[in-house]
Design brief:
287 residues; alpha/beta; Rossmann fold
């Protein structure tokens, strides 16, 4: 018991230090990556609250992310070990996949694709996350797109067999009732029978241990999270409003969800979708 308490105290101290670090993004590093990736800040098309949730992922924060979040926080804070999220990926991943909110690319790097040459698209608001994930997944030559999931997503591609929203929703501003607009934006990108899946940390209706309660307060105060009122019923209402079928499973503080479109019975005319101007494609792949 004493050893467990010591581990929890160490985790608390480490994650608190990380929270302090990642809440102060480096403008100098951001400017360097803007030049390297050839984009202008205005293409974010996001308000200040939306950018807060993405801006914390500096190169330093991303270097610590796998250990701090996927290794420590998931197990000891959110009580949903990363192997559960990886299993969820393996259950739903396809050979034509779009990842929205890419993090460090950890799960795409470790999951089991149906073939050795999947077609992968990465979509994120943060250039550092895109760069790190694309480099990690360079063996798959992913396409990279920068944009805001709260706005209509136009990447010039559709017909994805799987789309993931892993740990995205709790970082977006608002409550789940308003954030479910993301489902409306994702739905046209799915092929018939395609699956959207993801996970999000809930603020209500789940049991938060003392570590979780403390970090929820810190992250929401800093704008890293916006999920104090997020509850399963609102998530379910959003999924039900946009998809033919859905599932939700709770693991600790985390809701793991999936939703599908039914297979079309007939196909007529030109199936290509036409989208309004939206996110900017960075390039086909990053070194």
């Amino acid at each position: 018991m004493r050893r467990l308490v010591s581990i929890r105290r160490a985790c608390t101290a480490f994650v608190q230090r990380l929270a302090g670090r990642i809440s102060k993004p480096s403008s100098q590093l951001e400017t360097t990556w803007q030049r390297k990736m050839n984009y202008e800040p205005n293409i974010y098309g996001a308000d200040g609250d939306t950018r807060k949730g993405a801006a914390v992922y500096t190169p330093l924060a991303l270097a610590l992310y796998d250990l701090a979040v996927l290794g420590l926080s998931n197990s000891f804070v959110w009580q949903c070990a990363s192997h559960l999220l990886l299993d969820f990926y393996n259950q739903h991943i396809s050979d034509k996949h779009l990842d929205i909110g890419v993090g460090t690319g950890y799960f795409l790097d470790r999951c089991r694709f149906p073939s050795t040459a999947p077609k992968i698209a990465l979509f994120d608001l943060n250039p550092h996350s895109l760069a790190k994930s694309a480099k990690r997944l360079r063996r798959y030559n992913p396409s990279c797109y920068m944009g805001n999931a709260l706005q209509r997503i136009d990447i010039g591609m559709s017909g994805f067999d799987s789309i993931s929203l892993n740990y995205l929703l709790h970082c977006l501003p608002g409550n789940l009732a308003s954030k479910s607009i993301v489902f409306e934006h994702v739905k046209p990108l799915l092929g018939d029978g395609g699956v959207m899946f993801g996970s999000t940390i809930l603020g209500e209706g789940v049991r938060h241990n003392p570590l979780a309660k403390q970090l929820m307060k810190i992250y929401n105060a800093k704008g890293i999270f916006s999920n104090l009122s997020d509850r399963q019923s609102d998530l379910e209402a959003g999924l039900k409003a946009h998809f033919d079928e859905h599932t939700i499973h709770i693991a600790g503080c985390v809701a793991l969800f999936s939703a599908r479109r039914r297979m079309a019975r007939t196909v007529t005319g030109d199936s290509r979708a036409v989208f309004a101007e939206g996110p900017q494609k960075i390039h086909d792949s990053l070194p």
